[in-house]
Design a protein that fits this description.
about 25% helix, about 30% strand, alpha+beta, about 290 residues, Nitrilase/N-carbamoyl-D-aminoacid amidohydrolase, 17 strands
Amino acid sequence: MDNNRKLHVGLIQMKCEQDKAKNVEKAVAYIHEAVSKNAQIICFQELFNTQYFCFEENYKYFSLAESKDSDTFKILTRVAEENNIVIIVPYFEKRADGIYHNSTIVIDTDGTILGNYRKNHIPDDPGYLEKFYFTPGDTGYMVFKTSFATIGVLICWDQWYPEAARITSLMGAEILFFPTAIGWETTENESVRMDQLEAWFSIQKSHAIANGVFVASVNRTGTENLTSFWGSSFISNPMGKILKQASIDNEEILVEELDLGQIDYYRTRWPFYRDRRVDTYQLLYKRFID
């Protein structure tokens, strides 16, 4: 690996309103602001151009879904090409009548769509009724060889699973991006809130440490229905040190320079890959060990 590979990563933490077109318009304005700060790879939050509709089961929200041929992607592919940037776009995908996914498209610097990752882990919890809307992903885990770096994308609930981060990193990801929509129920007390937020930080930083990769997690902010999204988007190095972090309540753009040459440094000194006993892990194929 080239030990002098530096690039700037940008995360855009937004509040969303009901009007998709206005959300896209605001997103484009934030892209230009991030570019002015030298961002080269820019990532949005989960379902970036809609409010988080999975708080209830309602057929009307299926009308929010779109394909990669939609106006949203016509706009963003043009913006990527004009600014020579990579854009990571999490969206509500309509694959076919009756088949919908929670997905992310990666657009390269020439406006080419490099691929479409579909969220693998679909939650079904109070306030997060995603199984009603989203078919589990069938793309497998993916990496995208962009003009600047090889990246992996895992969406929200995916971020809690060490197996997902491990596989994506073993496939060659140098940066794991976690577009997210997560928050607190408005009735939860402060102690419970802080415990949940700390767990969120801890699990993602552990992926950075265990795999020797950079982690970039971008969440939405603002209150929608009964959920207060906790923002707190962050970028960490391969030792889990947070390099930059957003606030809980405000829309923010984080831009941070990453030195990908550090990956070899950390993996040499913390050789988890070298010492893995892959011959002992067969039991991971079981859901539970009785």
